[in-house]
Amino acid sequence: MRTLVSPTQLRSGRGKAVYWTVFAVVMLLFLLAFVFPLYWAITGAMKAPAELVRTPPTMFPQQWHPEVWGESWERLNLLTYFGNTVFVALGAWLIQLAVDVPAAYALSKLRPVLGNKILALMLATLMVPASALLVPTYVTITDLPVLGVNLINSPAAIWFPAAANAFNIYLLKRFFDQIPGELLEAAVLDGAGQIRILWRIVLPISKPILAVVSILAIVAAWKDFIWPLLVFPDPGKQTLSVALQRMEIDMPLNILLAGLVLASIPMVLLFLFFQRHILAGLTAGSVKG
């Protein structure tokens, strides 16, 4: 296999020095790009408001204000908005699994008529800008077809539009395609129906991709702003992203910045805890074995 630098060059003293120098510089740049914004937000929250807007900015707070975290929690009423966001995110996660998993299984293993064309049409929706769908989706949830129900200020206004996610269905289908057909045929011979096969055989061996889809669903619902802004006009039912934007006018900058840091902690911890599952799930269905 040919590479940019031959193994012989890498084994030489100069080659090793160049390699590790380039590696260290690249890693340092990535570290600065990803870690420095977190550092700036955390230290900025513990600065005084006047110091936070000073030009040129200070790298370290001249006076540390750790009490800003508790003050931000109380003044921004973060407990209420955390509860709203968790409820919305968990609901969106569950309804996506309930819809996307059976849909992907049907497209992969049941092979319905025109299944490939249906999948192609679903994937084509990914090319449509999300902003172009705001008006028709809003009109739909304000007067739900058949039922005639207005879902404004209801978490269902978030859950229903998020239920059928084309990207998640594609990821799941790609993973299900790698499951040996002989395994499912043996279950059919033992008298198992399709629902039982999905529940007892397919889902237990699909934990990596289910973890990926779950994280994508939760993160998308947690950080979404435009759609919750439209469907939650009631301040008491708003999610974190909408509530923090609404209160930014009346709050000191360091209090607001502390609130933003606190709001991001759950998703950062979620990613750090499940990062191995994310990588395993994304690569599991990419190569046939």
Characterise this structure:
By secondary structure, the protein is mainly alpha-helical. The chain contains 15 helices and no strands. Helix 5 crosses helix 12 and helix 12 (207-223) packs antiparallel against helix 15. The two termini are 21 Å apart. The model has no long low-confidence stretch (mean pLDDT 88). Keywords: Cell membrane, Membrane, Sugar transport, Transmembrane, Transmembrane helix, Transport. This is Permease component of ABC-type sugar transport system. It is a multi-pass membrane protein.
Question: Could you give a short description of this structure?
Answer:
The chain is 70% helix and 0% strand. With 289 residues, the chain is an all-alpha fold.
Distance separating the two termini: 21 Å
Please give the number of β-strands: 0
Q: Number of helix segments?
A: 15
**Low-pLDDT residue intervals, each spanning 5 or more residues:** none
The H/E string reads HHHHHHHHHHHHHHH
Give helix % range: 55-70%
Class by SSE composition: mainly alpha
Portion in strands: under 5%
CATH topology annotation of the largest domain: MetI-like fold
| Largest sheet features | none
Categorize the overall geometry. flat
Identify the CATH homologous superfamily of the largest domain. Answer: MetI-like
Average per-residue pLDDT, rounded, comes to: 88
Number of domains: 2
Can you name the CATH architecture of the largest domain?
Orthogonal Bundle
Q: What gyration radius follows from the Cα positions, in whole Å?
A: 24 Å
